[in-house]
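User: I'm new to structure prediction. If I give you an amino acid sequence, what do you actually give back? Let's try with this one:
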Amino acid sequence: MEKNVGRVDQIIRYLLGAILIVLAVLIPFWWLLIPAVISIGTAALGRCGLYKLFGINTCKIDNK
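Assistant: Good question. You get back a string of structure tokens that encode the predicted 3D arrangement of the chain. For your 64 residues, that looks like this:
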């Protein structure tokens, strides 16, 4: 499967995931861990299912 998440997009996803984890710990909204894990997971893998579904690609490297 080709990567469709670019570097800037990955950084934003990592930051969003970290913020959601901090919020889940400080304010007992444990359900926030679900989108945090998804955000960090898509950043780590470099692939996003919704991007694939809508044909979006923020990765500058040609994966073909």
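You can read the tokens as a compact description of the fold. Here is one thing that stands out. Helices lie at 7-26, 33-45, 49-54.
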